[in-house]
Amino acid sequence: MSARLGIIGAGAWGTALAQAAARAGTPSTLWAFEPEVAAAINETHENPVFLKGIKLDPAIRATNNAADLSACGAWLVVTPAQHMRASLEAFRAHLRPGTPVALCSKGIERGSLKLMSNVLGETLPHAVPAVLSGPSFAADVARGLPTAVTLACTDASAGEKLIAMIGSASFRPYLADDLIGAEIGGSVKNVLAIAAGIVEGRELGRSAHAALIARGFAEMTRLAVALGAQRETLTGLCGLGDLVLTCSSPQSRNMSCGLALGRGESLADIMAARNSVTEGVATAPAVMELAARHHVDMPICEAVAAIVSGKASVDAAINALLARPFTSESA
Ligand SMILES: NC(=O)c1ccc[n+]([C@@H]2O[C@H](COP(=O)([O-])OP(=O)(O)OC[C@H]3O[C@@H](n4cnc5c(N)ncnc54)[C@H](O)[C@@H]3O)[C@@H](O)[C@H]2O)c1
Ligand SMILES: O=P(O)(O)OC[C@H](O)CO
Fold first, then answer.
1. Is 329 in a helix, a strand, or coil?
2. Residue 13 Cβ contacting ligand 1 at under 6 Å
3. What ipTM did this prediction achieve?
């Protein structure tokens, strides 16, 4: 296996993961969707569009040519969830069968309601699938601040190879085998972080914030278990860990989106002002369709889906949640 890592997607997270790999002694080829981003990384060793102000290791080689990843021993895929299918299809001719491919994006495909591992299975069936997820802000990882994540792979030796390529003292992947649990944790926490931002923006208080995390965690776990995940996965880094991080810091794009919604800004204005992805906005309606299909009750995610789809105002959604009948905590 080549010791070079291929990374598809040079947004903040793909760039930070390239930096984590460099810290682990692994050179990488970082594919950028925008040719000018690839050129800037090679010329200035910085990603001025998506990760401004962080000096990158010269072992990171950027490209806009998909064929350049054919020689890499493993791939990380870090493209936004709604662009995952088209991106993977563009790389189909360049994958060597048996290559470990770790999905690092957090979202559910709208329309099909597929998880990213389903999309990978349909587009690159000869890959060995893995999921990397957990509490990790790109800027923290790129700066080398201590971070721990879940690396889920049912092929333990492929998982260990991936961990050897990216793990270091400051970036610590923990091996797991539950891809569905890792994916649902990462996808649903983005939706719940929008709700947490709304709680903050509407000044509903710390008690409401804590209640939201606990009841949101119950929703996340119910959906994951209904889809076949192990309950314990959700108590780990990729579930509760990421939920706590993302619901607690406006550094999160999802939480900051909720904060602005809670303060009265329109979703259109919030989205128009950013060039970075806010996965929870597209994933919220997909989560609700998936929950309905599996008869899973997810009232907080439902409220977020109604708000981002323009079907309910922030106040109407909050009032509807608070008017729900009292029920058992374990329901
Ligand atoms: N940023 C983080 O801290 C972080 C951490 C963990 C996971 N993630 C996940 O990583 C994924 C990527 O997020 P990010 O923060 O790196 O992105 P970003 O917001 O920094 O950048 C947007 C990305 O979208 C890409 N893009 C735009 N249009 C595209 C198209 N048509 N086809 C393919 N790509 C296109 C851009 O090239 C860029 O890579 C998301 O699923 C996110 O949830 C992000
Ligand atoms: O900025 P967000 O909300 O996309 O969150 C980034 C990471 O997923 C946090 O683990």
1. coil
2. yes
3. 0.99
